[in-house]
Amino acid sequence: MNSPFIVWSYPGETHFNILHEVSEGDTHFVFAPFHKNKHPFNIRGAATTIELDDLAIQLSGKNPQSSTSEVAYENAINRAVDQLKNHHADKVVVSAITSYKFVPQPILWLKGFREQYPQAFIYLIQSEETGTWLGATPERLVSGDQNEFKTISLAGTRKSEDDTIPWGQKEALEQSIVTDYLRNLLIQNGAENIRISRAQTLSYGTLQHLASDISFQSDKKVEDIANMLHPTPAVCGTPLEKALEMLPSLEEHERKFYTGYLGTLDNKGKTALFVNLRCMELFEDGICCYTGCGITEDSIAEDEWHETRLKLRSMVSIIEKMQNLSDILIPC
């Protein structure tokens, strides 16, 4: 495998940046796993722009993971709903994995994701410690400059073609849970001048989400703010500790870096950290994609499984198009 590197493109950009680990340079990139008891991976050096066709990617290893079945996922959702109705928590996020066997061509995918999702954070990272990951996430964890910061309350998913229909009660409740949690968390941690926009529809290709922009002022270091916000109810649940306690009984796989966070970290200048959604791990013989849904006591298992398929297609459809696959990829 090559020496560690990260390639990324910020929302609204058309070019890609690259960072190799070197002794000099003022760019700090962090790639943090979901669980806080595991250390983030850090790369520091001098970032430059790159033409993707000049990028060399060597994939290694066999994908060891089998896909989460529909039956297994729906059974997990039903167990989660039962626990929520018994007041174990208000919300929990349950994830699924989907594996495919074929020869990946990630450079093509980066181009496709950048074209299809102009407002997403697109990345590919490779190192011995992390393996190879690629993603296109719509969700900001925190961004800012000096003591002015922004985050987002994002939850609820539907197809873009449903945009003439009002959001349902389940999705509105799910998003309000995230908003209320973030507001209270910021207040408890001394943030000032907190401003929250009204929930609006955020488009992501063929999908839409409910989102509220949140801005605030804080004298805390960026690292402390990120650690305070992560994980949000949008990727774990609420109350946080109760949702975390539920996850081992609902997920058979390790999340690894899915629903962790990543991005550039700078206490003096530009900071832009994103939640690691719509992502996959790459191997020489295929990929493993990660998706998930927020579950409340009103959730219907079949609907939640369908939502994971919508999120999965937002990734896989780009792969099929850019790699000119004649057959639709079949999970294994």
Radius of gyration: 19 Å
- Average of per-residue pLDDT values: 92
Could you tell me the number of beta strands?
18
Helix content: 25-40%
Summed up, the domain count is 1
Profile the largest sheet: 9 strands, antiparallel
Global geometry:
globular
- End-to-end gap: 25 Å
Return the CATH topology: Anthranilate synthase
Can you tell me the CATH architecture? 4-Layer Sandwich
Unreliably modeled segments: none
Class by alpha and beta content? alpha+beta
Order of helices and strands: EEEEEHEHEEEEHEEEHEHEEEEH
What is the number of helical segments per DSSP (H or I, 4+ residues)?
Answer: 6
Which strand order do you get reading across the main beta sheet? 5-2-1-7-8-17-18-6-14
Strand content: 25-35%
Briefly say what this structure is.
The protein has 332 residues and is of the alpha+beta class.
Supply the key terms.
alpha+beta; Anthranilate synthase; nine-stranded antiparallel β-sheet; 18 strands; 25% helix
Describe this structure in words.
This protein is an alpha+beta fold and 332 residues long. The chain has a single domain (5-322), classed as Anthranilate synthase (4-Layer Sandwich), CATH 3.60.120. The protein is 25% helix and 34% strand. The protein contains six helices and 18 strands. It has helices spanning 70-85, 106-116, 169-188, 222-229, 240-246, 301-322, and strands at residues 5-9, 16-20, 27-32, 41-45, 48-50, 91-101, 121-127, 131-137, 140-145, 148-159, 192-196, 200-204, 207-217, 237-238, 261-264, 271-275, 279-283, 286-295. The strands form two sheets. The protein has a nine-stranded antiparallel sheet with strand order 5-2-1-7-8-17-18-6-14. Helix 1 (70-85) crosses helix 6 and helix 2 (106-116) packs across helix 6. The longest helix is centred in the last third of the chain and has 22 residues, at 301-322. The mean pLDDT is 92.
